[in-house]
Amino acid sequence: MASNVNPTVRRRRLGMELRKLREDKGMTAEQVAERLLVSQSKISRLENGRRSISQRDVRDLCDVYEVEDRRLIDSLMQMAKDSRQQGWWHAFGDIPYSVYIGLETDAASLRTYEPLVIPGLLQTTEYAQALVRGAWPETAPADVDKRVQVRMHRQKRLSETENNNPELGPLRLWAVIDEAALSRRVGDAQLMIRQLEYLIEQSEQPHVTVQVMPFSLGAHPGVNGQYAILEFPDASDSTVVYIEGVTSDLYLEKANDVQKYSVMYEHLRAQALNVDATRQFISDTIKKYQDRGE
């Protein structure tokens, strides 16, 4: 049974606390690594939340930083324990983007730009199946099913009644989608019609905003590719910019990087069609698929 504790977020929060303790002590990661006889890269991975943190790691680091506050030590030790529990996604086995899923599960809002496909949180099951098969042609049928099941499970964050994290409420989603994602036929025409109808349906939820970026608008701030910005309800959790890759993903948390992507996203939202014009554009695209009858 998966725990309600989100290990990804706990690791990030614990890593930030440990980094703060090191900086308050005036030590570099290299100096800490020398004291503990470990590699500097291990200290960096512990602080950026990319590696599980054991209670022994916390104990050793608190010794180095001469932490005397017992309540603080106990709190950090509990966070380390929580960070090693399993989230709901672990029940599906090895998921390549499990770090992202952990972040998305605890995010309060998500701003995403998709240049080629419909965003995963807004996909129908049929569309997701056809997309995964096309994008990963060598993937075994069982693995295709697993990826699709995970994607459908993630969509519970958009539901008031089936939310994975009811304390947060539904995820506030803002999606800017390039016209290419609507025009690119994934599966047959009927599948695309159902997908686009579902996209309109989802866009009518009060916490979901969808805007289309038509070809006619030319160059825009999203031409460099897909990215997402995740924000969290707890002020201690920094905003994360997520950029998906083929073999590895990129997570940006530095304030300067986040600011640049946030400004770029504001330009995207300003240039894209407004909500009403977007729904009309999607409806017109549906008619094109109907007329072609492919």
From TrEMBL:
SMART domains: HTH_XRE (SM00530)
Pfam families to which the protein is assigned, alphabetical: DUF5753, HTH_31
Residues of the signal peptide: none
Domain of life of the native organism: Bacteria
Alphabetical list of Gene3D superfamilies matching this protein: lambda repressor-like DNA-binding domains (1.10.260.40)
InterPro entries: Cro/C1-type_HTH (IPR001387), DUF5753 (IPR043917), Lambda_DNA-bd_dom_sf (IPR010982)
Record domain HTH cro/C1-type: where: 18-72
Name of this protein: Helix-turn-helix transcriptional regulator
